[in-house]
Structure formats: C-alpha cells, structure tokens
Amino acid sequence: MQTTYIETQQISFQDFKNQILEDYRLGRISREMSYLGRREVLTGKAKFGIFGDGKELPQLAMAKVFRNGDFRSGYYRDQTFALAVNALTVESFFAQLYADTSVEREPASAGRQMNGHFATRSLNEDGSWKDLTAQKNISSDISPTAGQMPRLLGLAQASKIYKSVKFEGSEKFSKEGNEIAFGTIGDASTAEGHFWETLNAACALQVPMIVSIWDDGYGISVPTKNQRAKADIAEMLSGFQRKEGENQGCEIIQVKAWDYPSLLDAYARAEHFARTESIPVVVHVIEVTQPQGHSTSGSHERYKNEERLSWESAFDGMVKFKEWILNYSIEIEGKEEIIASAEELDAVDEEAKKIVKAGQKNAWENYQKTITDLIQSILPSVENLKGQNAEIEGYIGQFNKLVSKAKKDVFHLVRKSLLATRGTNSAERSQLMQKYNEIFEVEKDNYSSHLYSQSQWKAENVKEVKPVFSENSEEVDGRVVVRNNFDKIFEKYPETLVFGEDAGNIGDVNQGLEGMQEKYGDIRVADTGIREATILGQGIGMAMRGLRPIAEIQYLDYILYCLQGMSDDLATVQYRTKGGQKAPVIIRTRGHRLEGVWHSGSPMAGILNLSKGILVLVPRNLTKAAGFYNTMLQSDDPAVIVECLNGYRLKEKQPDNLGEFTVPVGKIEVTKEGKDVTLVTYGSTWRIVMDAAEELEKLGISAEVIDVQSLIPFDLTNEIAESVKKTNRLVVIDEDVQGGTSAFILQQILEKQKAFRFLDSDPLTIAANDHRPAYASDGDYFSKPSSDDMVERIYALFNETNPQKYPAIF
Questions:
Q1: Distance (Å, rounded) from C-alpha 693 to C-alpha 690?
Q2: What is the pLDDT of residues 434-470, one digit of tens each?
Q3: Gyration radius from the chain CA atoms
Q4: Residue 375: Cβ-neighbour burial (10 angstroms; 0-12, 13-18, 19+)
Q5: Is the alpha carbon torsion for 788, 793, 794, 798 positive or negative?
Q6: pLDDT beyond 60 at 1
C-alpha cells in the first residue's frame, strides 16, 4: 500500500524551508497569471477570463497529497493546483486564454475550451492508453456548475474495483486500487442536485474521494445565505459524518483558505482517510477571497460592501502566507532559523512577474505567428487575382486595414475573392482554390475533429460477425438471448461490469441479467440507488480509467435525468480534448411501445440533438441488442443501446456464437424486399411496420422495409437512397413525436443521400401524437402509429397517383 503524506513528512529544516519557498513562488506565479490574464482580456487580446486568484494556498496544499495515478474532476478555478502538479505552464495558461488551437501549446483542449478548463492527456496520438499510473491525471473540466461531480464518483469507484478486478493491461490504470479521486467545486454550486446525489452515492459506496469546496461566501453576486438551507455547508452536511464502527458516511474537515499550516494538516488528514480507509472526505475551505471578483464579465465592487472588500484585502491568502513566513522562526541547536526575509520574498514577487510576463509574451507571439503564417501562405495567391476582378483589390485593402487579424478574416477574404471570380477559369484562381482547400482541411481538423473516435478502435471499424444458427439453436425468450450473451461477455472481458437499479440481485427488472451477480459477484454486477445522473457518472469515470462499464438506466424515459451529463460531459470528452481523453461507456436502457405516461416515452430526438458524440443504437430485437454489445466492447466510442421493452418475452432463435457475433454500426438491414415504396423504421415499431407491409401486399402495394438499426451513425453506405431509387416513394415511420427522429431520418435521406431526386410522391412521415400514451390498455394504439395508421396513410399515397386502381378508403 502507498504511504500517505502524513507518513512521509520527516524532513530537515532546509527541506522544509525549500518547500515553503517553492509554494510561495508558485502561489505568486499563479497570482500574477490571474492579474495579467485579466489585463489581456480588458485590452482585447482575449475574449473572456475567469481566474483562480484567492485559492492559491488550498490548491498548493491539495497538490502535496496528489500522487501519480490520482485523478481530479474539477472546475475552472484550479490553475494553482494544475501548476503545482505540472499539468499547466505559464505559456499553456495564456495559450488557452488566447484560444490557441495547437495541442502542443495548449494540451488541455487545443483552444476548444475557455480558459481555466484543465485536462491532462490520457491517450497517445493513436488513441491508445498511456500509463495513467505514471502521471498525475486531470479529467477534462466542464463549465456547467456541479456537472463535474457525477464523473468524480466513477473515478473514485474505479480504485475500489481495481482492488479485486485484474485484466491484461490493468496495471496501466491502477496500482492495487490505491488512487484517490479529487473533486473541486465552488460553494454556491453545492446547491445543485448533482453535488448531493454524488456525495450521497459516495458515502453509500465508500469510495476514496476528496471533495474540496471553495467557499468565498458568494455565488457570483448572490450571498451564500440565499443559496442553501444553511449558510455553512459543513453544518448542513453534519448528518453525513460517519460514525465510529459504521461503514457509511464521510469525513468532514473545515479549514480557512488563508491558514497555510492548517491547510497542510487538513489535506494530509484527508488523504490519510481516503487512501488508507477508502472513504470519502469533504474539505470545506472557508474564508476564500476573490481579489478580482468572479470573472472579467463584471466587477465584484457592485455587490460587495466596503467592509467586505477591506476584509478580503487583509485576508488575501498570499498576503497572509507572506505574513506567516516572515513571522516564522525556530531555534535549532541554539540558533534562530527563519524561512526568508522581507527582501527575499520581494525578490520572489518580482521574479514571478518576470516569469509570467515572459510566458505570456511567448504564448502571444506563438499564437500570432499561426495567423501570420496563414496570411503569408494565402495572401500572395489572392493578390494574383487582382487583375481578374476589380473588387478584389478593395477586399485586400479592407483586410490590410484591420488592426487585429483573426483566421476568420483570412478565410473571409479568400472566400469573397473566390466568389468574385466565379466562372473564371485561370491558373491563378486554381492555385487559390488549391491553397484554400489545404488551409480549410487544417482548420477543419483544428475546430471539428474528434467528435467521435478517430482511432483504429472506432466502432465503424469493428467487423461484422453474423450470428450462427443450426438445427440445435433453441427458440427462447428474447431476455434469455441477451442474458446468455452477457454471460459470455463477462467471461470474455474481465474489465466489463454492469450496474443500475435492480441490475444485481434480481438480474434487472426484465431478467436480462438473471444469475449474473451470483456468478460474477457484486463488484461486476451491481445494484445502485435510484440516482440516474450518478449511474451515468459512474460509467464516465470508470471508463476514463480503463474499465468497460455498462451503465444501466432502467427505462428510456428516465434517461432524461442523464441528458445533462450525456450532453455536456460524455458526448464532448473526445472533442473537447481533441482526442486527449475518452470514456467508452455503454448506456443500457429499454423503452418503446408500452402504455403509461412515464414508461412509454420516446425522447429519441432529444438524445439525437443533445448527444452528438455518442452512438445511438436502436436494435429491433434482443439478438440485435446482444450483437451491438459485442460490437461496442471492441470499440472505444461511447454508445446508448435501447433494448425493446416489449421484446423480452417474445421468442427468438438463440445464436450458437453468443459473445462473438456483432452488428455493424451505421449499417441498415432490408428485412422485406419490395418495389413500390420504401418504409424506413427502427426499434419496436419495426414489427408493426412488417405487419403493415404484409397488409399492403394484399392491397397490391409491394413495400420494402428497412430497419435503420443505428441512428448515429446513420446508413454510412447510403443504401436507403438505393432503395428509394428503386421504389420512388419514401415513408419514415417512427414512434417519436412529429418532427422528432423522423425529421432527422428524413434529413439524412433526402439531403445527405440526395434521395429527393428519385421521388414520384411527397415523402411521408408517420409519427406519434405529441402527447405520451395514456395508461389505458389502448393508449399505445391511439397515441403511436398503429398498423391501421400505416396501411391507410401509405395506401393514400397510391390513391393520389392512381385513384382508379386504389380507390379512397374513407
């Protein structure tokens, strides 16, 4: 077991002195970064700034107990901590402030996140994992208040899992589960539900987690007393305090932000509890100051009175730290020893200013050079066109008058020049066009890459392995197919685990995990509380540490609790780090075609719109669902898999190659061939569409039925357009609301696949009513598309074309 900070602090006075001075130096550098950063925004060189001034001392103390292999999940004020663990430099801090798109200069996000959002790179350039135990790790920050908390739970729980789970390569993710997950949050954000849900779950699960609450008395301009039931969050959390002999609850430590020795002691104790006893700890850091206010968007003088401002000036952490150093003395062997004189500390202050100014200057020059190089590479080609259109000289003149030039100004100039010379066939224009294509590809990579995996393990690369059936293949309930496939998965992939409400002891509400907990244990097949946001968070954090979690959300309707985390965190992990981090979570849920307002929703359009970056897979039966699980466990993309809720008791033939067969993503399946109309659908609605197609055959209409299988990605080989080319008619059938998923599918087919060219009739969508189905037994029939609806509306297409052959029904 690793030793803790408490157990290693037998040092000489000289070492003690050096540590203090190094902390003071880092604190001063961080403070100067905040000061200069604000000035850079106010002078127009950066767009927005939010800084960590006032929090230097607690973050220095936290950094002392942060070891290789540990993880932080925080928010945008932890610059001192990031500096102290070597995850940030002065230059990279300013590179992010200027939104430099270079991964080398701004490794946290390559200009994709505003300043103060920190991250370390967990992946090599090819998308493979680095050895995370050999580095200090920061999971990529997000801005939504308390949104970082659910992920923190998973990062911490992974340590507990690694104490008993081993697999090939697991040594790159954990050393016997001794790592701690550190979380940071502003005091006002503890009013958010995500904070309470995460802390509650952590106390129940007893995971090694340290949450630091930076309490400056305000939430932007709103005082703490107006934020929560109690102004003092530690008092409010007192019921969470663990009792001796009980395996529940957490430790709560309160400490002042300006009291350096007490901060060292607080974090040493917090580490000892978390690392040696595997329990969560809350460190409530009070009396935090914000010397420059909340952000560059406004001044804190507007809402803080003179008394408060005067107090903040006197109790500024760096001021108090300097006082403490100057007042410190100790007698050693009859000689009085001090840490530093006032002159020595003043020299450190001046050195910090020089270091920060030099780093800022380098960052600005590097950022500007990117734009200068772009201009020099393209402007001569634009100038070569001046003789071909008189307007171009004016465009160049306007461009040259710009005091500050950005990439968009360069592209605007080039595109206006190409527009002005349209129809001109010249070598000069061809050269400009070639240059434009070259620079466009570079910027497309800078701003739009890595929404999905670009590694060799991306889901699209997983080869299809068809299910094998034989004379001995049994007809079984659909739930048995998925259950027996999970059995093979857990046997094949020891890093795979599943957790959710009722997932463990009873084997999920539909028995798709029946007997799995008994066979594989309650670590790998686990029950959770009713807390969907942190079920997702467990999955994100575990996946960031090399595990392969399947986070089960009991019903599709309940995924709404997860949408914030799916949209703001999981869907953007690869994008906002430009391929520096990944979290290949599989979200397992079930839904569709049932009665009842709360168990029959189809929020697919919401998922599609809000969660670009996550694959959305909609199998029509449980065999297809099993194949998708097998596919995704070979991939490093995250995915949501929606099982058919009404399919668990329907009979399916069980494949002989369970755990091996795969369903390709982005691949449609033609389940019935036809020549008159193409019917496109997915999920549980597919069965009803197939029934309708048989009825249409009797009416002389040959319908081709296509199951899209995956919504994201969608029909990668444009096979649906080929079907429409044959049938000349298109109907999209969906149980989502009108203008929901059907609109997405229609856009993909008509616009992206250009299938409008082949239509002889208007495209038709058949969707659900805009309300959810009533619980009444016939709620589904009257709310969502029935076979009768489909037959009548598709028949009407042919009535319009040939009323004699297809006389009106009504």
A1: 5
A2: 999 999 999 999 999 999 999 999 999 999 999 999 9
A3: 30
A4: middle
A5: positive
A6: no
Convert the pLDDT of each residue in 118-174 to its tens digit.
Answer: 999 999 999 999 999 999 999 999 999 999 999 999 999 999 999 999 999 999 999
Q: In this structure, are residues 27 and 316 in contact, taking their beta carbons and an 8 Å threshold? A: no
Report the SS3 class of residue 298: coil
d(CA 221, CA 201): 30
What are the backbone angles phi and psi of residue 654, rounded to the nearest 5°? -85, 125
- 602 by DSSP, 3-state: which? coil
Burial of 804 (0-12, 13-18, 19+ CB in 10 A): exposed
**Distance of alpha carbon 592 from alpha carbon 595, whole angstroms:** 9
Nearest alpha carbon to residue 735 among 764, 773, 709: 773
Q: Domain map of the chain by residue range?
A: 13-340, 353-448, 459-653, 670-801
Domains 13-340 and 670-801 share a fold: yes
Instruction: Report the alpha-carbon angle 557-559-561, nearest 5.
Output: 110
Measured CA to CA in angstroms, residue 799 lies from 38, 412, 695, 700 at distances of 69, 51, 16, 12
Contact 317, 77 (CB under 8 A): no
pLDDT tens for 20-75 read 999 999 999 999 999 999 999 999 999 999 999 999 999 999 999 999 999 999 98
Residues labelled as active-site residues: 599
Distance, in Å, from the CA atom of 27 to the CA atom of 356, rounded to the nearest integer, reads 12
In angstroms, the CA 192 to CA 190 distance is 5
pLDDT digits (tens, 9 = 90+) for 771-783: 988 888 888 899 9
Domain at 459-653: CATH architecture: 3-Layer(aba) Sandwich (3.40)
Residue 557: other Cβ atoms inside 10 A = 20
Q: Are strands 669-672 and 703-707 parallel, antiparallel or unpaired?
A: antiparallel
Q: Domain 13-340 has what CATH class? A: alpha beta
Distance CA 576, CA 86 (A): 20
What is the rounded CA–CA span in Å between residue 404 and residue 400?
10
Contact assessment for residue 281 and residue 236, using Cβ atoms and an 8 Å cutoff: no
Q: What is the rounded distance in angstroms from the CA atom of residue 201 to the CA atom of residue 326?
A: 44
Give the end-to-end CA distance of the chain in Å, rounded to a whole number: 78
Q: How many residues does the chain have?
A: 810
Check whether 3 has a pLDDT greater than 70.
Answer: no
**pTM (predicted TM-score):** 0.96
Q: Of 696, 708, 561, give the one whose Cα is nearest residue 194.
A: 561
Residue 161 to residue 604: CA distance in whole angstroms: 33
Question: Could you confirm whether domain 670-801 is CATH 3.40.50.920?
Answer: yes
C-alpha dihedral (777, 782, 785, 789), degrees to nearest 10: 120
For CA atoms 446, 615, 595, 561, give the dihedral sign.
negative
Nearest to 551 by CA among 587, 575, 581: 587
* Residues 23, 282 contacting (CB under 8 angstroms): no
* pLDDT digit string, tens, across residues 256-293: 999 999 999 999 999 999 999 999 999 999 999 999 98
Using CB atoms within 10 A of its CB, is residue 149 exposed (0-12), middle (13-18) or buried (19+)? buried
Find out whether 685 and 710 touch, Cβ atoms under 8 Å. Answer: no
Residue 262 CB neighbour total at 10 angstroms = 16
Identity of residue 469: F
Confirm if 61 and 80 have CB atoms less than 8 A apart.
no
Question: b/e for 150-188, b at 16 or more Cβ within 10 A?
Answer: bbbbbbbbbbbbbeebeeeebeebbbebbbbbbbbbbbb
